[in-house]
Design goal:
10 helices, about 15% strand, 10 strands, two-stranded antiparallel ribbon, globular, about 260 residues, alpha/beta
Length: about 260
């Protein structure tokens, strides 16, 4: 199987990585083209485009100005991303063999880089996939990336001999994938918590659970996606009754 994740808005650029192993993103030329577009934005224009505070807009204008295809000062994606998903993944505590599993079995969808392997080196940036950044390819990043993301996933699927793509990404990021063009079927785990007398998706917990499941796969070295149904972490368990072939429900009945 191949797993896809979303990136994170927040970055940890202070904690040292636990490995020196690294790879180079596959689409740096295309990333550079996006940076060239972004460098024309003033802080105020960027704040409006991305709905950022003035402080964050200033920060990212500076990041675009200093961004380079030279990755000598960059950091591995799995060690840089620091959101809820990556708190669950906790890559720094993985053993070398488990990181190797992640490198070959996990892909991170990215607005700036398209598709990343966990150990691909990235520079600090902010560019969500849903950003309506106009380029010669169209009105937004979905148009910019076109079929590139799907093609890269198909290459990874073929290299691994994977039979299933496990979608642990958000809807915003998975919209960059064209499922009908994938060479394998897609399975989407959904995480729900009991609240107010019913099960519902609670964003914070669902994001963390996606990272926990990716970590579970890495720690267990899971190859067959069916074995993910045995995932029982943080109180979640597979709900066979409300699942179907392509949507797998994981629920926990702990009032939150």
């Amino acid at each position: 199987m191949l797993i896809v994740l979303s990136p994170a808005k927040s970055l940890d650029l202070e904690t040292p990585p636990t490995t020196k192993l690294h790879t180079t993103p596959d689409f740096l030329d295309r990333s550079g083209a996006l940076i060239d577009v972004l460098r024309h934005y003033s802080p105020a224009e960027l704040a409006s485009l991305m709905h950022l505070s003035d402080t964050l807009a200033d920060l990212n204008v500076g990041r675009y100005a200093s961004w380079s295809k030279d990755t000598s000062e960059a950091r591995q994606a799995i060690m840089a991303f620091n959101g809820d998903v990556y708190a669950g993944f906790d890559a720094r505590s993985l053993k070398p063999g488990q990181l190797d599993y992640a490198q070959h079995s996990v892909r991170i969808l990215s607005g700036l880089y398209g598709v990343l392997r966990p150990l691909d080196l990235i520079h600090p940036h902010r560019l969500e996939m849903g950003t309506k950044l106009a380029t010669p390819q169209g009105k937004d990043l979905y148009a910019f990336w076109g079929e590139t993301v799907t093609g890269a996933l198909n290459e990874a699927i073929a290299a691994k001999g994977a039979k299933v793509l496990v979608n642990l990404a958000s809807q915003e990021y998975f919209k960059s994938v064209k499922p009908k063009l994938l060479s394998v079927p897609v399975v989407t785990p959904v995480f729900e918590d009991w609240k107010g007398g019913k099960y519902k998706i609670i964003s914070f917990f669902a994001k963390r659970a996606r990272g926990l499941m990716a970590r579970y796969a890495a720690v267990k070295g899971i190859v067959d996606a069916e074995k993910l149904k045995s995932f029982k972490v943080d109180g979640y368990a597979f709900d066979k009754h409300d699942s179907d072939e392509r949507t797998w429900m994981f629920r926990r009945k702990v009032e939150v």
